[in-house]
Design brief:
Layout: H1 28-55, E1 58-63, E2 65-69, E3 74-88, E4 91-95, E5 100-105, E6 112-113, E7 118-122, H2 125-168, H3 173-212, E8 215-217, E9 222-227, E10 234-235, E11 250-255, E12 260-267, E13 279-284, E14 287-304, E15 309-316, E16 328-338, E17 356-362, E18 366-369, E19 372-379, E20 382-387, E21 389-394, E22 397-402, E23 409-412, E24 425-426
Parallel strand pairs: 1-24
Antiparallel strand pairs: 1-23, 2-17, 3-12, 3-16, 4-11, 5-7, 5-10, 6-9, 7-8, 9-11, 12-15, 13-14, 13-16, 14-15, 17-22, 18-19, 19-20, 19-23, 21-22
Length: about 425
């Protein structure tokens, strides 16, 4: 029997060196730790800045604007804003003078018409017949006048003969008297025939006027901006029941688009700011980027007690094809602030005033800190406090005399506790 025994565990004679095995990289974990540490050190400032920005308050900003007065001109500063609608200064709802059925229409919306041009006709066959009858009556009256005149002439000659015979004692008094009566009757018949002619001609005139009244003519040069009737419809000078679109018998609305204006209303509290011929800037709701030049033309002599407003009209001086009646418009009334008055130099030569800039910021951008007007300027995401000198109010804006430059971004309604140099987030960026 053979007995096998295991070698002891501490037998070092069995250890061998494997020279083909790859070397072990004991330094790799340490290198990875070093790389991670360096990366973390590099990313820490960025992460800290990102967290600071995300935690920074979100603010709304506005730009500092500037109005510049060119030499010899003046700056127009806003003082009041009102809204209204574009209307034509000369506009008319053209109606008919006589009722009837429309036979022809020569216009559509946008048609240009001239003063006195016939734009519509009403059926007038009955009036044509009346006119023809009146003209025939004139011809008949003229014929009767001719007969009466001939009879009168004969009776006058007969009277002359009777008078001659009476002087010779040949005729009797009765014959002379009869001749005189006959001549008088013939003269009266002529007068009656002449009156009949005048009456017949007057009836012709009436029929001609009635015929003319079936024509609808343009009252002035303009453009048809609204068509209110169609051929075949029955119209009346007083309108047709159930057809409210033709109030007062109007079949078209014509406007002179060469002179457009804005009809607006101003509160009684702001009415005192308006002055005659006051300049204004007009903006259409449809074209916000286009500003038109306006001028206050009329202030209505009466106010509306129920609304506490006064109606005013502002003429658009440079209206183009974009401006159309009934468009919604905004009017910014402006006052003119003249620049430096021309003076004289030491040499006695008139000096020309240079540009007179006016810097404006929204009122919400200026706060009072310890009695000092202060504004917060944002640059590269950092808020900086500025002491500013302010001037007069201009609607929702205020003049800035010092402390701000045109184009800078200022914070509106700065949050409480905002520190100088603190990061902020601009809303919408």
């Amino acid at each position: 029997m053979t007995i096998h025994t295991e070698p002891p565990a501490h037998d070092l004679s069995r250890l061998r060196i494997d020279r083909d095995a790859p070397p072990r990289l004991r330094w790799l974990p340490w290198a990875a730790l070093v790389v991670l540490g360096v990366g973390a050190a590099m990313l820490y400032p960025r992460v800290r800045a990102y967290v600071a920005v995300r935690q920074a308050p979100e603010v709304e900003v506005a730009r500092v604007t500037q109005l510049v007065t060119t030499p010899g001109a003046s700056a127009a500063l806003p003082v009041l804003v009102a809204s209204g609608y574009v209307v034509a200064r000369h506009s008319s709802d053209v109606g008919v003078k006589a009722g009837g059925r429309l036979a022809t229409l020569t216009f559509e919306e946008g048609t240009r018409v001239r003063k006195g041009e016939v734009i519509a006709r009403i059926e007038h066959a009955d009036i044509d017949a009346q006119l023809e009858a009146a003209r025939r009556a004139v011809a008949e009256a003229e014929a009767q006048l001719a007969q009466a005149a001939a009879a009168r002439d004969e009776d006058v000659r007969n009277l002359d003969r009777q008078r001659a015979l009476a002087r010779d004692g040949i005729t009797t008094t009765a014959s002379l008297t009869g001749a005189e009566s006959t001549a008088a009757v013939s003269a009266a018949r002529v007068t009656s025939a002449e009156a009949a002619i005048a009456s017949a001609r007057a009836r012709v005139k009436v029929a001609e006027e009635a015929l003319e009244n079936t024509n609808v003519r343009a009252p002035f040069d303009g453009v048809v901006i609204k068509k209110r009737a169609e051929v075949g419809e029955t119209v009346s000078p007083y309108g047709v029941q159930g057809q409210a679109s033709r109030e007062g018998g109007a079949i078209a609305t014509i406007a002179d688009l060469r002179e457009l204006e804005v009809q607006t209303e101003v509160s009684e509290n702001s009415f005192a700011k308006l002055t005659p011929a006051m300049p204004a800037a007009v903006t259409l709701q449809a074209y916000q980027g286009q500003v038109y030049t306006g001028r206050l033309r009329q202030i209505f002599p009466s106010a509306d007690r129920s609304k506490s407003i006064v109606e005013v009209r502002v003429t658009i001086l440079d209206a183009d094809d974009h401006v159309k009646p009934e468009m919604t418009a905004s009017v910014t009334f402006q006052e003119r602030s003249s620049g430096t008055d021309p003076g004289r130099t030491r040499d006695g030569v008139d000096s020309v005033p240079g540009p007179s800039p006016t810097i404006l910021v929204p009122k919400k951008a200026v706060t009072d800190v310890g009695g000092q007007a202060t504004a917060w300027v944002v640059r590269d995401g950092v808020a900086a406090r500025r002491a500013v000198g302010v001037g007069a109010d201009r609607l929702d804006q205020i003049e800035v005399k010092s402390g701000l430059l045109p184009g800078e971004s200022v914070i509106l309604n700065a949050p409480a506790g905002l520190a100088d140099g603190a990061p902020v987030r601009v809303k919408g960026s």
